């Protein structure tokens, strides 16, 4: 995960999204497309370029990928080509889960059409496979749909698209088929030359107050992730030991349990006194105050643990 963290941090800064949400968007999509953490930079750049050249944002694109990526990835389609379809739908106001559902349904129908769908596809020469039976790139499928259905009269076009893609998905696919060449070229070129887009957007955002705040939050969240990964083994070890002690405690007789609880309570009562004494030492008040709290906590755990150990030994 750490390998992909820097581009995800920059994407969070560039988009204004929370780091956690941005991380989910990127990592979930990478998994669906069969990509690795090292590809996080590429995917982040595609999102940054598409969101700034279409009527959408990273959050809504993430919601679309959540629905569309598993099918698109299974068909071997690229992140870039899928992002083109997402961007064209977004330009027509079809975004987030609605666009994701349209893409997922449409691709499923193209691959496994009913008899009626297959008849319509054959009539207009639409196929997702080439003459050798291999899957065509998604971009080629989009181009063929636009070329073969784009010039039909509106009534015929609506009927054909509804037959192939279904009534719920037809609006999304109509927006892809009828998108202007200018919009298609603008979005396609931006995605094809997207390398470095995330860094550029993050740099721009960081120059204003909102971007600086987002950058600070993302940096803190990122530091938290790294710190947790470092201390996680120790936390796990401590949790296991505490669990063992709790299990032993639960097996003691009530009288022994009561004695241990009283010992722990004594530690709680003594803790603040020790902390107060620490604060009286000139120049080291703050440090010893924190130290006494930590010592108090450790002391309580140790006291209770020793009680359990003694009790289980003698029980």
Automatic annotation (TrEMBL):
User: For the Phage tail tape measure protein domain, which residue ranges apply?
Assistant: 2-166
Specify the protein name: TP901 family phage tail tape measure protein
Q: Which InterPro entries match?
A: Phage_tape_meas
Q: Is Lyase tagged as a keyword? A: no
| NCBIfam families to which the protein is assigned, alphabetical | tape_meas_TP901
Q: Which UniProt keywords apply?
A: Viral release from host cell
Q: Which PANTHER family match?
A: FELS-2 PROPHAGE PROTEIN
Its taxonomic placement starts with: Bacteria, Bacillati, Bacillota, Clostridia, Eubacteriales
Q: Which domain of life is it from?
A: Bacteria
| A Pfam family per the record | PhageMin_Tail
């Amino acid at each position: 995960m750490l390998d992909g963290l820097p581009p995800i941090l920059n994407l969070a800064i560039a988009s204004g999204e929370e780091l956690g949400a941005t991380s989910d968007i990127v990592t979930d999509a990478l998994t669906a497309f069969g990509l690795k953490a090292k590809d996080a930079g590429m995917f982040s750049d595609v999102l940054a370029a598409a969101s700034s050249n279409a009527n959408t944002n990273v959050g809504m694109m993430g919601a679309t990928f959540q629905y569309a990526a598993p099918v698109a990835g299974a068909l071997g389609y690229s992140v870039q080509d899928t992002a083109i379809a997402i961007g064209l739908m977004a330009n027509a106001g079809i975004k987030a889960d609605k666009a994701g559902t349209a893409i997922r349904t449409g691709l499923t129908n193209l691959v496994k059409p009913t008899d009626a769908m297959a008849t319509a596809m054959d009539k207009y020469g639409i196929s997702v496979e080439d003459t050798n039976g291999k899957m065509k790139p998604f971009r080629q499928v989009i181009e063929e749909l636009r070329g073969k259905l784009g010039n039909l009269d509106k009534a015929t076009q609506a009927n054909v698209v509804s037959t192939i893609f279904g009534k719920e998905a037809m609006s999304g696919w109509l927006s892809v088929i009828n998108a202007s060449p200018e919009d298609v070229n603008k979005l396609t070129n931006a995605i094809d030359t997207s390398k470095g887009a995330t860094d550029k957007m993050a740099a721009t955002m960081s120059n204003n107050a909102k971007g600086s705040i987002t950058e600070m939050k993302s940096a803190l969240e990122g530091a938290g992730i790294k710190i947790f990964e470092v201390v996680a083994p120790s936390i796990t070890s401590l949790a296991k030991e505490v669990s063992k002690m709790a299990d032993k405690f639960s097996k003691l007789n009530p009288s022994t349990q009561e004695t241990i609880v009283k010992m722990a309570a004594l530690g709680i009562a003594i803790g603040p006194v020790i902390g107060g004494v620490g604060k009286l030492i000139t120049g080291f008040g703050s440090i010893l105050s924190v130290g006494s709290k930590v010592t108090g906590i450790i002391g309580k755990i140790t006291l209770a643990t020793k009680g359990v150990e003694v009790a289980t030994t003698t029980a």
